[in-house]
Design a protein that fits this description.
Elements: H1 3-21, H2 24-40, H3 42-49, H4 55-66, H5 72-83, H6 90-105, E1 107-114, H7 120-134, E2 137-144, E3 151-156, E4 159-164, H8 165-180
Helix pairs in contact: 1-6, 2-6, 4-5
C-alpha cells in the first residue's frame, strides 16, 4: 500500500472520529502543532522513525513531549499509530490530516513576504483582504525579505500575487527591451 493511501486512511479515520466528538477544530490545531514540532526537530524525527527503538519507548516519549500541550485525543492517536507499526509514516499521516482538515474547514495558508516588517494593523489588513478575496479562512505567515526593494508578494495555494518593486522593474525592463527590438 502506498504512503499516500496509508496516510489518507489514518487521517480520515482520525478526522471522522474527531468530528463525531465535536472537536475537529481543536484537534486540527493540535495536529498542526505536533506536525510543526516534528518538522522543527530532526532528532525527534529520527527517534520516531528509527526501527531499533522500541515502540513503547516512542509512545512514552510522545506522551511526555506533548502531554499538557495538545488534546489527549491527539496523544492517544499518536500512540495508536506507533502501536500499529506505522512510525515511519507518522509525519506523512499528520501532514495528510492537516491537508484534509484544512480543506474541510475552509482554511488556506497565505505566505506574505514584504520588504519591511509589517505592523499589526497591516497584517490585519492583509488577512481581511485575503479572506474576502478567497472566501476562506486564512492562516497567514509573514516574513520580511531584504531582497525585495519594496512592496510585497503573497502566495495563496497555487496563486502568487507579486506587487514587489522587483517585479515592476522586471516588467518595465521587458517592455522597454521589447519596444527597442
Amino acid at each position: 500500500m502506498s504512503v499516500l493511501n496509508i496516510s489518507t486512511r489514518y487521517a480520515l479515520a482520525f478526522m471522522d472520529s474527531s468530528k463525531e466528538k465535536g472537536i475537529l477544530e481543536d484537534v486540527s490545531k493540535d495536529v498542526e502543532f505536533v506536525y510543526n514540532t516534528f518538522l522543527g526537530s530532526s532528532d525527534l524525527k529520527k527517534f520516531i522513525v528509527s526501527p531499533v527503538i522500541k515502540q513503547s519507548l516512542k509512545a512514552d516519549s510522545v506522551e511526555k513531549i506533548f502531554s499538557g500541550k495538545v488534546n489527549d485525543t491527539v496523544i492517544t492517536f499518536l500512540k495508536f499509530i506507533l502501536s500499529k507499526g506505522r512510525a515511519p509514516h507518522l509525519i506523512s499521516i499528520l501532514k495528510r490530516f492537516k491537508e484534509i482538515s484544512d480543506e474541510r474547514l475552509g482554511i488556506m495558508d497565505a505566505f506574505v513576504s514584504s520588504s519591511v516588517e509589517l505592523d499589526e494593523s497591516q497584517r490585519k489588513s492583509f488577512l481581511s483582504l485575503l479572506e474576502a478575496k478567497t472566501n476562506k479562512k486564512i492562516r497567514t505567515h509573514f516574513k520580511s525579505d531584504s531582497n525585495l526593494l519594496g512592496g510585497f508578494m503573497i502566495k495563496v495555494g497555487d496563486t502568487v500575487y507579486d506587487a514587489s518593486v522587483n517585479h515592476q522593474l522586471e516588467t518595465l525592463k521587458k517592455n522597454l527591451l521589447g519596444e527597442v527590438k
